[in-house]
Amino acid sequence: MKNSSNTVIPISTIGRARPAVAVPEVAVPATGVLLDRLGRPMTDLRISVTDRCNFRCSYCMPKDVFDKDYKYLPHSALLSFEEMTRLARLFAAHGVRKIRLTGGEPLLRKNIEGLIEQLAGIRSPSGEPLALTLTTNGSLLARKAAGLRAAGLQRVTVSLDSLDDAVFRHMNDVDFPVADVLAGIDAALAAGLGPIKVNMVVKRGTNEQEILPMARYFRTHHGGKVVLRFIEYMDVGATNGWRMDEVLPSADVIARIHAEFPLVPLEAATPGETAQRWAYADGSGEIGVISSVTQAFCHDCSRARLSTEGKLYLCLFASAGHDLRPLLRGTASDDDIASAIGHIWQGRADRYSELRALRGPDNGSGDAGGKAPRRVEMSYIGG
Contact at 8 Å (CB) between 147 and 134? Predict the structure, then answer.
């Protein structure tokens, strides 16, 4: 197989880990507050429950790479729901207050409702339930929304890159109709999974003409219960052929919408929030922009990412993860694993997007000179 940037490496290699995680000699107790080397707390955990997806979006899992012969992780390599829940409980003891289930496409994982039920039972050290959300392409949402809510899921985020059916089918590259995703959004709202966030990845020359139609639609539907967010096309992984000239800066998105629907800026809802929030001046809702290419927000990033096979990643643009699975499946106690997690986070100094802004973007193979290790794929650890 060939790709526009590099020879493809299987996920088993792209998702490589550093040397086996060891229990630190000096224990790191779980106190509810855990800071990295830059003083950033760990408050959000994103758990990838599968490396598979039924879409082939060019910016994430292009069909020429993830074809019928692609070698996905064997089922035996995946963490069980009980293992994921055990880790999530230990992360919560360190300060995590929000868990997002992702993929791949998380609704492809069999009996995902069972995992949600387990996670919904986790409490913070002060006894509060965690915020529990899920990101989906919406293809299975209409049939699963009610069951997800009954299991304890609180919210969903839906990826939708166009309302134009031809554009959408082209971008998902499996001929999936936009009407079915909209039906999934309706079902999720009816089930009580709102407010819903709808994420649109904007790729210059592909779907930028859909910015205003998306804004018009979601500001007039659902009574403000759907927040539309525009995401800059990011240089994640190594298989999507990313180019800077295909990035439409968020400032341009805001300018286009503001020209038709005046906007006013809003304060961030929570510390470390990825999106800049804007309200329609007439009170008809809000939008957001996620600008990781043109306006890095590494300085307050509080997100940890857990792959479906148990590797802990400290950055969306990381090249390697810390493998927690041997500890889970060995004789390590909860205190041992919690201490290992604490030690890893305390050593974190990742700030890829800020450094990229200083030295210029690369093509996914590492640094601008192509000398650093290949980065992990977004489909492996979620967006």
Answer: no
Quote the tokens at residue 205.
């020359």
Which sign, positive or negative, has the C-alpha torsion 382, 295, 371, 320? Answer: negative
Q: 376: how many CB neighbours lie within 10 A of its CB? A: 26
Is the torsion defined by CA of 314, 319, 322, 328 positive or negative? positive
Cα R_g (the chain), whole angstroms: 20
For 157-199, give the DSSP string.
EEE---SSHHHHHHHHSS---HHHHHHHHHHHHHHT--SEEEE
- The greatest distance separating any two alpha carbons of the chain, rounded to the nearest whole angstrom, comes to 61
pTM: 0.89
Alpha-carbon distance of 77 to 308, in angstroms, equals: 8
Strand arrangement of the beta sheet that strand 155-159 belongs to: 263-265, 276-280, 286-290, 226-232, 196-202, 155-159, 131-136, 98-102, 44-48, 303-306, 311-313, 322-323
Q: What is the pLDDT of residues 25-78, one digit of tens each?
A: 999 999 999 999 999 999 999 999 999 999 998 888 889 889 999 999 999 999
Instruction: Using DSSP, state whether 338 is helix, strand or coil.
Output: helix
- Tell me how far CA of residue 12 lies from CA of 73, 89, 135, 240, 358, in angstroms: 7, 27, 23, 18, 31
Owner of token pair 């927000």 = 297
Nearest to 237 by CA among 316, 171, 309, 290: 316
- CA atoms of 206 and 162, how far apart (whole Å): 10
Parts of the chain with a pLDDT under 70:
1-19, 235-242, 272, 356-375, 378, 383
Nearest residue to 106 via CA among 154, 158, 70: 158
Element (H, E) at 141: helix 141-151
From residue 40, alpha-carbon distances to 272, 299, 338, 346, 348 in Å are 9, 8, 18, 9, 9
